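Design a sequence for this backbone.
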C-alpha cells in the first residue's frame, strides 16, 4: 500500500459523513472522541505483529452516534488505515490490528482514532521484527 496524505483526507471525509448522517437523532446520540491509552510514548510495535489499540471508555456516552476507524500517521505527514470502519460503541475499548510488514522502522508513528473529529495519540516506535 502506498502511503499518501489523501488517505488522511479520506478518513476525515469519511468521518464528516458519518457524523452528519443522522442529525435528527443527535439529541439521543452523542459524538465521542475516546482518549487513546495504547500505543503511547514508550510503546514499541513490531512489524507484522498483532497488537491492540486501546482507549478509555470512562467518558463513553450512553449512546454513541459515531463509528470508529484507526489510522496510522507516519512522521506526522503520511497516513494509512489500520482498521476498517467498526462499531465504536460495541468495541469495548480496544480494536486488534496487524502492524503492516512494509513500514520503515522508526520512532515517529502515531495512531489516530476516529471518533468524532479524530484523537491523535503520542508518538511511539515501530521496530523491525
Ligand atoms: C439513548 O438512546 C435511547 C434510544 O434511542 C433513548 O431512549 C435514550 O434517551 C438515549 N439516552 C441518552 C442519554 O441520550
Ligand atoms: C486485545 O485485548 C483483548 C481484550 O483484553 C484480549 O483478549 C486480546 O488477547 C488482546 N490482543 C492482543 C494482541 O493483545
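Sequence:
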Amino acid at each position: 500500500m502506498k502511503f499518501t496524505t489523501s488517505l488522511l483526507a479520506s478518513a476525515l471525509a469519511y468521518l464528516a459523513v458519518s457524523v452528519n448522517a443522522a442529525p435528527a437523532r443527535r439529541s439521543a446520540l452523542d459524538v465521542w472522541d475516546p482518549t487513546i491509552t495504547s500505543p503511547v510514548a514508550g510503546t514499541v510495535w513490531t512489524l507484522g505483529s498483532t497488537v491492540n489499540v486501546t482507549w478509555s471508555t470512562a467518558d463513553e456516552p450512553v449512546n454513541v452516534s459515531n463509528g470508529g476507524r484507526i489510522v496510522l500517521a507516519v512522521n506526522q505527514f503520511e497516513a494509512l488505515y489500520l482498521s476498517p470502519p467498526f462499531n465504536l460503541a460495541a468495541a469495548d475499548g480496544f480494536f486488534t490490528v496487524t502492524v503492516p510488514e512494509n513500514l520503515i522502522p522508526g520512532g515517529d508513528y502515531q495512531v489516530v482514532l476516529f471518533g468524532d473529529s479524530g484523537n491523535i495519540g503520542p508518538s511511539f516506535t515501530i521496530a523491525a521484527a
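The longest helix spans residues 5-20.
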